[in-house]
Amino acid sequence: MGAIFSFFVVAILIVVALVGVKVAGFTYLFGVILPYLAFLIFTVGMIYRVIKWSKSPVPFRIPTTGGQQKTLPWIKQSKLDNPSTGMGVVGRMILEIFLFRSLFRNTRTELHPGPRLAYKWEKWLWLAGLAFHWSFFIVLIRHLRFFTDPVPSFLRIIEGLDGFLQIGVPRLLMTGVILLGAVTYLLLRRFYIPQVRYISLPADYFPLFLIIGIASTGILMRYFTKVHIVGVKELTMGLVTLNPVIPEGVGTIFFIHLFLVSTLFAYFPFSKLVHLGGIFLSPTRNLANNSRMIRHVNPWDYPVKIHTYEEYEEEFREKMKMAGIPVEKE
Amino acid sequence: MATKAKPPKPEELAKISYKPPEKGWMETKAEFKPGMWCYGARPKNLQAVDFPNPRDWSPADEDWKLPEDWKEIFLNGIKERLERYRTFHVFMDICVRCGACADKCHFFVGGGDPKNMPVLRAELLRSLYRKYFTASGKIFGKTAGARELTLDVLKEIWYYYFQCTECRRCSLFCPYGIDQAEITIIGRELLNLLGLQTDWISGPVANCYLKGNHLGLEPHTIKSNIEFMIDDIETITGIRIEPSFNRKGAEILFITPSGDLFGVPGVYTCMGYLMLFHELGLDYTWSTFASEGGNFGFFTSMEMAKRLTAKIYSEAKRLKVKWILGGECGHMWRVWNQYLNTFWGPPDFLEEPVSPITGTKFENARSAKIVHISEFTADLIRHGKLNLDPSRNDHLRVTFHDSCNTSRGMGIFEEPRYIIKSVCNHFFEMPENTIRERTFCCGSGSGLNAGENMELRMRGGFPRANAVKFVRDNYGVNVLANICAIDRAALPTLMDYWVPGVQVAGVTELLANALVMKGEKERTQDLRLEPLPGKGESENV
């Protein structure tokens, strides 16, 4: 249900852009106003989100420890999975953010007759996740060529590497294909793994369909419909220099692409996609396991009612004396 | 109260279906199955610690006798905790429902109920968060994964938040470190605001608050229990040990969970402590007041956890000791390692812990001044301070169960293994996906080790038991060693159910078996008063 709903929402978005541009001719709306608005919502929304999280304090230092603690000098500490210093935490976070360290541990549990449980190799989710995020990131970086003039050399290098297979004209860029492949895998696993299907919400399918739409229109433009690239660059440079223009002859498909991207940006801060920011703030990962070495302070700590030794002795004094246990007051 | 439901036979229980129901989870009401939940808290136990809404109630009742404004209390509780815990706030927002955590939970593996997938357990609360605290949830409702708080939803949260042992295994695999233990802790705090506590938790909490320990052992009983052990030690070794209680000026205060003071096999571990400390001539004292290292308060609310730990440092101060040594326990060490210093520190009246035997400074405990018995003992063995005869454990083929709390809330893996390997000749690891940081829970942690929820416990413990079965069948393992009092209380039942023939022992018990004490008679029995291999009666047969 969630999948069908989300699919139709994305389909409607495409139709809206199509009709809006082709029939109604709202090119300025779709080419200028909505992209600006989306970028604004994204920026303000993400800042707001991160500030809101940061306002919630971290009362306790509770990292999930994934290896040997720092202890006696002759026992080797697992410095990255159970860091005790700031440097260790930085290392752990780098592994998490760039390589998805935790997800790399993933296994698949199987129940066999016996009964016997088996934990099987299962790195596909990790692999697809990594492929998806990295290729998306590189695709995003590559798009900076539309917003810079002259195009910096590092972008040319990235593009060169991306197209090193040297297939076709224009040259095939791997990341676009990988992105589409990985996001399709992530969608299919939501359909075919019963548990994942059971937990999936419309909010899980929607961004996947949206990104499939974005990647597909991008690929269509580059390799098949051959969009009027000079016009596109004129438009994007206009946006980035705050002198928006709508050149003639930019195909409708470009506006559809841009509208889907705008939707993604605007949707981002209100969705699960905020994990992009949240991962940095996750207290089970970004803290050192050193509460016994350095005291962590709880900013909202308050006095609590306790039962004191004096009250305890008051109640049990006679029994303690009888048992020969020393007391404060005879 | 209902009569205790007996769990089905293991063959029956092992028929687990992981197929989710046709209907969506929001439309599926929680069904309270006998043997899967604990009795409700009795009013006197809530009153003892000023917890809200004390009354007689049973989770099986239609009417839970909630306060009139229970919804408001619950929702305000969520709001307050969103503002207090970054964990909770971030975890409510960033889950992408990738499902990596799903088959990592022992309750899901052992039961197949989809709401025991950590992701869905969290969604039970997250759906309320969306409904009442996010714009999209308010506007789009169910489409945005939001739902109203109703009595059925509340009951569902109760049912499943007491089917989580806060073991953090899901958190290890989560790409964002979302920790269901943290969400369960907060969820239980919210339930506690309405008096929805279990009796198996609230009883020990009340006891611990008033009498110093979960079991409610009074000072003279603690002493006499230990004296019984001393008699047994004398029978075994010929040595009479004279420990001290509430003695001022001792160098070290020793605190262990009260489970070690009562009932087998916990007492054997306790005998181990007594023998080790005697052999070292350690200047230490027991306290009848700080007679509990464990903390069932941690399973009700953070505030109660704090209230129950007050006595750890205050008693150390009163007795003017230099530092604190802690016995074998799981959640006790999670609290001591990650919370205690924040709750009640800095304990400046104590000194940085130094082993009086080896001179080793315990650098990792320099601020909190609390040392784990396995850290202490491993250091002793490393420095050759103990005379050990591992052949006394030759009748034991040992494997080691890493407790969830000491694994994923501390990381003490090598110390106990080093000790076991020094005192046992036959040590075998369970499969690597079931040990160390990936260890499986005993299924009875976080206050779920009651009698009435036996099916739940046997299901939750299934992955652990199954790994033990592997080493029993392949290597003839007959002892499951551990460093946790809950394990010692819960695992024997689990072993009898799934893997008969495997005994449960604390690491210090194994150590004391092998410990050659000065002036001891030739030992013919182990700590359980069973004949040692090749010694005593068995020799004459």
Summarize the structure in words.
Chain A is mostly helical. Helix content of chain A is 58%, strand content 4%. Chain A has a two-stranded antiparallel ribbon with strand order 1-2. In chain A, helix 7 (174-192) runs antiparallel to helix 9 and helix 9 (202-224) packs antiparallel against helix 11. Chain A starts with a helix and ends in an 8-residue tail after the last helix. Chain B has 541 residues and is mostly helical. Helices cover 45% and strands 5% of the residues of chain B. Chain B has a four-stranded parallel beta sheet. A three-stranded parallel beta sheet of chain B has the order 5-6-7, sandwiched between helices. The radius of gyration of chain B is 24 Å and the shape is globular. Chain B starts with 9 loop residues before the first helix and ends with a helix. The chains are: A mainly alpha (330), B mainly alpha (541). Chains A and B meet through helix 2, strand 1, strand 2, helix 8 and helix 9 of A and helix 3, helix 4, helix 6, helix 9 and helix 11 of B.
What does the secondary structure layout of this molecule look like, with pairings?
The complex is a heterodimer of chains A (330) and B (541).
Chain A: H1 2-23, H2 27-55, H3 86-99, H4 101-104, E1 107-112, E2 116-121, H5 124-142, H6 153-162, H7 174-192, H8 194-199, H9 202-224, H10 229-240, H11 252-267, H12 275-278, H13 309-322
Antiparallel strand pairs in A: 1-2
Helix pairs in contact in A: 1-9, 1-11, 2-11, 5-7, 7-9, 9-11
Chain B: H1 10-13, H2 43-47, H3 70-84, H4 86-94, H5 106-111, H6 118-133, H7 135-140, H8 151-161, H9 169-173, H10 180-192, H11 199-211, H12 219-237, E1 252-255, H13 266-280, E2 284-286, H14 302-318, E3 323-326, H15 330-344, E4 370-372, H16 373-382, E5 398-400, H17 404-408, H18 414-423, H19 454-460, H20 462-475, E6 479-482, H21 485-498, E7 503-506, H22 507-514, H23 537-540
Parallel strand pairs in B: 1-2, 1-3, 3-4, 5-6, 6-7
Helix pairs in contact in B: 3-4, 3-10, 6-10, 8-10, 12-13, 13-22, 14-15, 16-18, 18-22
